[in-house]
C-alpha cells in the first residue's frame, strides 16, 4: 500500500493529474445520486445498507479527517459534530455514531451535505495547489486512498440504492433500460492449471490496498477452474432439484441461516404466475437465464458447488487463473448496464459479479497494516469474512486489479455476488 | 358517535360549512409540516412514531377508503397500492403495511403524497357539492370523523416531529421562539368533591367518538383533586429524593420497564453541567421549573403520586371535577407555544398536558362500536392502555370535550403527558 | 386483609389449630411433589413457570423472611444466600435472583431444600409454642398469609408441572387416571340479574387478601350471566368457524399476540389424525367435549364472547351472580381429577376453571396495601393484568371465597383459565 | 480417517482389545459424572452447554444410530423418540431436537439414560463378539470413531459441568482439591523455525478424524514460536494496561462482541477485595499467576498478541513446531488437576490449554468428508470457526495427536482455551 515515489521529475504532472482525478471521482458520486429524490437519500433498509446521503458525507469526512486535519495547518472543520456523525468505524478516531441508526437522521439535509462536499473539495484543492512542488509521498498515498475509498462507496451506493428500491412495494426504477435480448446459455468449460509454486499478491509499485500484499509464494496442486461464473439457468436447476431443502449440501451455519431467514432463492427473486422475476436497478424484470446468478451468499455458492460435485476456488487459485487475462475488460459499471449479463468473451474473470472464494479473509504472511487510525481500514476485518474476487457490474473499471481482495460475511447477499466453480 | 340530524332546515349551511371546515383542517396538516425539509418527512425514529409523510397520506387514505370508495359511484382510487401502504390498522379492510417499517419507504415522495391529497380533496369537494341537497347523516358523520381523525394525526405530527428532531444529535429547531419568563411556581391546591352518583360520558348530540358514550351513572366517594398539573419543580424533588431508585414507589411492571430502559428522568431531559435541559420544538432549552412536567409515563405518574402520599384520579373523578370549567380555554396549539407553561388561571384542566388517570381504557356500560371496518377505530384498543384526559399544548382547541378519552400504553412517553394528583 | 382478633378467649385453640393447619398445608406441598422424579424439580420451561424445587424453597423463605426474621429473637437464617435465591419479587427486601433463570440452578438439591423446609418448620413450631399465650394478631395474620401464599404456590405447582410435562415429547404422566365417561353437553342457560346498587368485596372479618377489600358499593345495570363456563364443544365451533382468523373478533393486542405466537387453538391442544387431543396431568387424552374449555387467554375468551354476540362479565357482575351459590362446592383439587369436567350441578361458579372477567385488575376504592415489604404482595401488580374469578380444578377448596380475585396478564394460558359469558 | 487393515493376523486381539477399550471409554463417562447430583444432570446454562444427562445419552445414540442400526440385523431401538431427542446435528438422519432446549427435558431421567447405556453396551458387545472372526474395517473404524466421539464429549462434560457450577451463586465444588504451591512465572522463550516446505496433516495409518488429512505440503517463512502458553501474570499486565479498552488492539468483530457482552477479563474471573479469583472445578480459588491463562476467546488471544507486538501462530506453524515434542506428555485429565498449571518441562505444547491459532477452520487440500450421515461429523463446520491445537487439562491423553484439529467460534470461552505467541 505504498506508491513508488522515485520519479520526482514527474511531480507536477502527477499532482495536476491527482487534482483532476480527485474532481472526477468526487463528481462520479454525485452523478450516481443524480436520479434520486431527496427522500431516497435518508433511507436505511437494513443495517448493512447506508443512506446515500451518508455515503456522500462519510467519503467527505474521510478527506477531512485523514488529510485536511493533518496537512492543512489552519483548517477549520466544517461542523464539530460531523466527526461523530460520519465516522464509519474508526474507533481510534472517536466513538462513531451507531451504524444501524444512520437512517434515523434527517439532518444534515442533502443540500447541507452537498455544501460540506464543496467546502472540503475546495480545501483539498488548495492543499494540493500549495504542495504541488513538494514531495510528499504520504499525502499522495492518502489522497489515492481517499479516492479508492470513495470508489468503494460508489459501488455501495449502487447496491444500497438497489436494496432501498427493492424493499419498496412500489418498486421504483433507478435507471430505466431494457437489457439485451436473452441468449441461450452455453455450458461452462474448465481451465486446467498445473501444480506448482506460484506468487500471488501485489508488488505495490502502484496503488493497492495494504491487504493485497506482501506478494508471496503459494503452493498449489493441479486444479481446474470454470471459464465463467455460474448462470441463472444453471442455478435454477439447483433450486428445482430442491437444493435449498437438502441439508447434506450445506455448511452447518448456512443451513441454520437459510432456515432462520426462510431463504429459498437468491435475494431479489420472486415468483409471479410461476415465472421467476428479479428486481434490478431498472425495476422488476424476468430473470435472464443466460446471465450470471447474483445476490447469493457464500453459503449458497458453497452449497451449489457441492451439489455439482465441485467446489469453490481458493483465492490463490483464482488469482493464478485470472492472471492470464486483463483486469480492465468486463461488464463494469462503465457499460451502464448495472446488471450482470452473459458475455461471450470467456474466460471472463472480471466485472459482472464478485466471486466467492473458499478463502477466509486473512492477512498474507508478513502483512503489516498502515500506521495510525488508517490502519483500521482493512486489517481489523480479518475474521469471519470470506474473500471475493473480480469486481462487479457496478465496480469502476480502474478500481480493480488482479490482486484485489474484497470481503463480506458469508451470509451477505446485497452485493452483486456470484459463483465460479473449481475442482481438483 | 352520532350527530343529531333533526335540524334539516340548516342543511345547506351545514354542508357549506363542512366543506369549509374540511379545507381548513386539511390545510392545517400542511401548515404543520411547512417548516420541514423533505428529508424530515420520511424518518421513523421508533415504532410508535410515524414519518410525517405517512401521516399526510394516511389521513387522506381515510377519506378515500371510508367515504369515496362507498359514496362516490365512479371513484377511481389514486394508486392501487396505497390501500396497503397507508392503511394503519384496519385489519378488516386488508393487511396493513408493517407499522415498524413505515420509515423504510422513500416513495411515494412528499410531492407525490401532496398530489394524492389534492386528488382526494377534489373528489371529496365534488362529492359534497353533489350531496348538498340530500340528507345523509352517515356521510356527515363520516366526514366529521375523518376531520377529527386528521386532527388527532395533527397532534401526532407535532409529537413525532419532536421525537425525530430530539433523536438527532444536531438538535434541529422546528419553530424558533423564546418562552415567557419563568415564574416561581405556586403550590397547587385541592378541589373537594362530594360523594354521590354522577353522570359521565357523552350525550352525543354533537360529534363525539363512540368510546365517549353512552352517558351513564357512576358512584363516587368523597375525593379531592389538584387544581393544576404537577410542575417540573415539584417533579424534580421526586428525582432528587431518588424516587427513580425506590422500588416501593413503583408498580411491578413500571419498575421492570424503568430498569430495562434505564430511564431516570422524563423523556427529552438531559443534564449539562449539573443543569437540567430538555428538548422542545424550539430546540434545547433549560427546564422551566414552573411549567407542568411532561413526557412522563403512567408508571412515572403513578410513582410520583405514591411518593406524595396521593394517587391519580379516576377518569370519572377527573370528568366530574372538570365539568365546572370550560373545555375551550387553555394552552392549546393555537397559542403557538407548543410547550406546556405555568398558567395562573387555575383550576386549569384543559390544554398543556394529557393527564394520566388511574383508569384502564375500557368500554363504558352498554358501549357499541360503530358498524363495519370503522368499528376498529376505538373499540379494539380497550385492553392494556390507560385513559388520559384534558388535551395538550399541541391539541387543537376545537377537538377537545369534557368527555374526551385519550389512551396510551402505560410506558409511553412521547406524547405531551403529565400528572394531576387526587386523594380520598 | 386483617383478621378479627376480638375473640381472645379462644386464643389457645386458635394457635393450636394454626400449628396443625401449618403442618397440613406444608405437607400438602410435599404430597403434590411426591410423584416427581428428582430431575423434574429443576426444570423451567418458560419464564412464567418455576421449577417445583423453587416453589418448595420460596414458600419456606416466605416464612423465614416475613416471620422468623422478625419474631424469633435469635433466629439464624438457614443459608445466607437463600434470601437472594428464593426471594420472588420483594424488591424492598433485596434484589431477587432473575426469574427467568430459576431453571439454571441445580443446587441446592431437592434434598437440601427439604432440609431447609424442616429447619424452618421446626423454628415456626417453636415460635408458635412460645407465643401461644400471648395475643399477637399480626403474627397470626402473617402465618395465615404464609399458608394462603403456600396454597397459591400449590396451584402453581400443578400448572407448572403440567407445563414441564407437556413440553416433553415423551409426554410423561403425573398421575395416571381415566376420566369419567364423556356426556353430550347441554346448552348453557342465563341467570338474569336486576340493575341496582350492590356491595362487593370482602368484609375482612376472616382472612382475605388486601386486594379483596374494602367492601364497597357498585352500580350495575340489568345483565344476564351464563350458568356454567363455555365447554370444549362450544369452543370448537368457534375454531371451526375460523374464529382465529377473523380480525373483527379480536382486540388489537390479542390479534397481534395470536399472530406472533401462531396460536390457533387452546394451549396443550394438538390434532392427531384429524382428532383433537390435549395434554392433561394424566397424559395425552382426547378432548372431552363436555368439559369446560381451559388454557385460553383473555384474548381468546374475549374473542369467543364477541363471536357469540355476548361479552365477558365484569368482576362485580360475576361476584353478585355467584353470591347466591356456595363457594365450597365444585371441582376443586380435592376431587383428585386435576382436570375440568362437565358438572350437572349448575349454576356452577366455583372450581373447574378460573374465569376471565372483563375487569382490569385494579385497586378497589379506598384500598390500602399492607405496611412494609409485605405490601408488595398484591398492590404492585395492579396494572396490565385482568381479574379472574372462581378457582380451578387445582385450587384447594378452603382457599376460595366469593370475593377472591386472581389476576394474570391477558396473554397467559398456562393456568386453568376458562370463559363464562354475560350479556346486557 | 481410515485405519490400516492389512494386519489381519492380529484380528482377534484387535477386536478383544476394542471390546475392552469400548468398556473402558464408556465407563470413563460414568466416572466423570460420579460426583454429580441428579439435579446437576439436567441443567443447560447457555446454548453451547449441554446437560450432562444429554451427553450420556447422545454418545449412546451415536453407537445405536451409526453402528447397531446398520450392523445388528434384528436390532430394536431402545426408544422410538430417542432418535429425535439425542441426535445432535445430523440433519440427514432426521430433524434434531432444538439444541437450546436440551435443558428443558426432565425425562428420560438419569436412571433411564443409564439403562439406555446398558442396553446399547450389551448390544455392541454382542455385535463385536459375533464379528470377531470377520474382517470389517468399516465397523472397526466406526467403533473407533464412536469412542473418540465419546472422549470428545467427556471433555465437554468437564467444561459444561464447570459452566453449570460457575453459574450457580452457591459455587458448588465438583472435586475438592488444593493446587500445587504457586511459583513465580518465568519468561517464555522463543523457538526459531527455518523457512521451508514442510508436511502437515495426518498419514491416517492409525485412527484420525477426516479433517486431519490429507497430509500435504505447506510453505513456511522463518518464524519463532513461544515455548509455552501465556500465563495469568502476563495476561494480567494486558488487563492492567487497559488492553480491553483500546480499540486499536482488537479485531472489529471482537471489539463489538466484547462491548456488547461487557467482557473485561477471562471467563470465570471475578474481583473480590481487589484480588482476582476464578472458578475452577474445585471451587472458587485465587488466580494462579504462574498458570496458563484460560477461558479466553480468540478475540482476546488475538488482541493480547497484538498488544505484545507479536501474533498467533498458524496451525501449520504450530504443528511443525510441536512435531519435535511428544504428544503424550502434558497436563491432561489423567493428572487429575482439571486446571491448567505452570509446567517446568518447556517446550510444552500439549495439555493444559487448547491454543488458538490464527487459522480459520477449513478443509485441507484434497479433503473428502466421510460418506453418508457420518460425513456431517466435521466437514460442515468448516466456516466461521478457528482452529485450536494441543489439547487441554481435561482432554484424555490418548485422544490427542500432533495433527489433531479442534475448532470453536472466535467468541467462545467456555472451553479451556489459551494463547501461544508467535512472530516473524
Walk me through the topology:
Four copies of one chain form a homotetramer.
Chain A: H1 11-33, H2 52-71, H3 82-85, H4 110-130, H5 137-167, E1 190-193, E2 196-200, E3 216-220, E4 223-226, H6 232-240, H7 252-261, E5 269-272, E6 275-280, E7 283-286, H8 298-308, H9 315-322, E8 354-360, E9 386-389, E10 406-408, E11 417-418, E12 422-423
Parallel strand pairs in A: 8-11
Antiparallel strand pairs in A: 1-4, 2-3, 4-12, 5-6, 6-7, 8-9, 9-10
Description:
Four copies of one chain form a homotetramer. By secondary structure, the first copy, chain A, is α+β, with helices and mostly antiparallel strands. Chain A is built from nine helices and twelve strands. In chain A, helix 1 (11-33) packs antiparallel against helix 4 (110-130). Chain A starts with 10 loop residues before the first helix and ends with a strand.
Number of helices of chain A: 9
Largest interface, per-chain counts? A-D, 33 and 33 residues
Computed CA radius of gyration of chain A, to the nearest angstrom: 22 Å
Overall residue-averaged pLDDT value of chain A:
93
Secondary-structure element pattern of chain A, one letter each: HHHHHEEEEHHEEEHHEEEEE
Spatial strand arrangement across the major sheet of chain A: 10-9-8-11
Oligomeric grouping of the chains: homotetramer
Shape category of chain A: globular
Low-confidence stretches of chain A: 1-9
* Helical/strand content category of chain A: alpha+beta
Largest sheet of chain A: 4 strands, mixed
Amino acid at each position: 500500500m505504498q506508491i513508488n515515489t522515485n520519479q520526482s521529475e514527474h511531480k507536477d504532472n502527477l499532482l495536476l493529474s491527482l487534482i483532476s482525478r480527485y474532481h472526477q471521482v468526487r463528481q462520479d458520486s454525485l452523478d450516481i445520486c443524480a436520479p434520486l429524490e431527496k427522500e431516497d437519500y435518508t433511507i436505511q433498509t437494513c443495517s448493512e445498507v447506508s443512506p446515500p446521503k451518508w455515503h456522500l458525507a462519510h467519503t467527505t469526512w474521510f478527506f477531512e479527517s485523514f488529510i485536511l486535519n493533518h496537512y492543512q495547518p489552519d483548517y477549520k472543520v466544517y461542523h464539530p459534530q460531523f466527526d461523530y456523525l460520519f465516522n464509519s468505524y474508526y474507533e481510534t478516531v472517536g466513538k462513531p455514531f451507531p451504524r444501524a441508526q444512520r437512517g434515523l437522521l434527517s439532518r444534515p439535509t442533502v443540500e447541507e451535505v452537498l455544501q460540506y462536499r464543496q467546502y472540503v473539495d475546495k480545501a483539498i484543492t488548495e492543499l494540493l495547489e500549495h504542495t504541488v512542488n513538494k514531495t510528499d509521498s504520504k499525502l499522495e498515498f492518502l489522497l489515492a486512498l481517499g479516492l479508492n475509498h470513495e470508489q468503494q462507496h460508489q459501488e455501495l451506493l449502487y447496491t444500497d440504492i438497489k436494496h432501498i428500491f427493492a424493499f419498496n412495494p412500489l418498486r421504483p426504477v433507478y435507471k430505466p433500460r431494457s437489457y439485451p435480448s436473452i441468449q441461450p446459455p452455453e455450458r461452462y468449460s474448465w481451465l486446467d492449471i498445473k501444480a506448482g509454486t506460484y506468487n500471488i499478491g501485489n508488488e505495490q509499485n502502484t496503488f493497492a490496498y495494504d491487504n493485497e500484499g506482501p506478494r508471496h509464494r503459494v503452493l498449489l496442486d493441479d486444479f481446474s477452474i470454470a471459464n465463467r461464473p455460474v448462470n441463472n439457468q444453471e442455478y435454477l436447476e439447483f433450486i428445482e432439484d430442491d437444493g435449498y431443502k437438502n441439508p447434506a449440501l450445506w455448511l452447518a451455519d448456512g443451513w441454520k441461516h437459510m432456515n432462520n431467514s426462510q431463504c429459498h432463492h437468491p435475494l431479489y427473486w420472486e415468483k409471479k404466475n410461476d415465472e421467476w422475476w428479479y428486481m434490478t436497478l431498472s425495476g422488476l424484470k424476468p430473470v435472464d437465464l443466460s446471465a450470471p446468478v447474483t445476490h447469493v451468499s457464500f453459503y449458497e455458492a458453497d452449497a451449489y458447488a457441492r451439489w455439482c460435485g465441485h467446489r469453490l476456488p481458493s483465492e490463490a487459485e483464482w488469482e493464478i487463473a485470472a492472471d492470464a487475462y486483463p483486469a480492465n475488460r468486463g461488464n463494469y459499471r462503465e457499460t451502464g448496464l448495472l446488471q450482470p449479463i452473459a458475455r461471450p468473451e470467456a474466460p471472463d474473470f472480471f466485472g459482472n459479479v464478485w466471486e466467492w472464494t473458499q478463502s477466509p479473509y486473512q492477512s498474507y504472511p508478513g502483512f503489516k497494516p498502515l500506521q495510525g487510525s488508517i490502519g483500521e481500514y482493512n486489517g481489523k476485518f480479518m475474521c469471519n469474512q470470506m474473500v471475493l474476487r473480480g469486481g462487479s457490474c457496478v465496480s469502476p473499471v480502474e478500481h480493480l486489479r488482479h490482486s484485489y481482495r474484497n470481503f463480506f460475511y458469508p451470509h451477505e447477499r446485497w452485493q452483486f455476488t456470484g459463483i465460479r466453480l473449481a475442482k481438483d
